[in-house]
Amino acid sequence: MDARIAECLAFERRAEELLALCDAALDRVRSLEGIFLLLPFLLRIRGWGLWATGRIDEAREVLKSSLSGAQERGADYEVALAADCLAGLYTACGEPAADLEDLRDAIFDKLGVIGPPVLPAVLHEVHSESHVVLTQMPRSRSVRDPRPR
């Protein structure tokens, strides 16, 4: 239940509250058996929250953990969502993300998913020599034509 509430907080741009709820839920999930699919989901939402608060390096590591955890569990939809979020982070940092975008698109095509849920763009600070510039995270999500090819 806390996982879905944390996801709702992400959609409401309430990153600090999301992080607190995710951290508490992650502590509980790690001690429970049979909740293995929840961990990559929580890590993905937590990664977004870290990104939204400007904690880019932490976000990158958490999102990589989400992606690898989803892959280990064979949770294709969660793999695609984690790849999408990680691709957005890489793109925002000026790093290549084509492999992640290809992975996301291949899974979405296989599953018949038109597009991922779109988390709101957030503003974060990019420090440049003597001044701070606010930039908006780009949306890496692409909505594909749902008609058969």
Calculate the mean pLDDT score and round it. Answer: 77
Sheet with most strands: strand arrangement = 1-2
User: What overall form do the CA principal axes indicate?
Assistant: globular
Count of DSSP helices?
6
Sketch the major β-sheet. Answer: 2 strands, antiparallel
Outline:
The protein is mainly α and 149 residues long. It has a single domain, classed as Serine Threonine Protein Phosphatase 5, Tetratricopeptide repeat (Alpha Horseshoe), CATH 1.25.40. 60% of the residues lie in helices and 8% in strands.
Describe the fold and architecture:
About 60% of the residues lie in helices and about 10% in strands. With about 150 residues, the chain is mainly alpha-helical. It has one domain (about 1-135): Serine Threonine Protein Phosphatase 5, Tetratricopeptide repeat, CATH 1.25.40. A two-stranded antiparallel sheet has the order 1-2. Strand 1 and strand 2 form a beta hairpin. The relative contact order is 0.12.
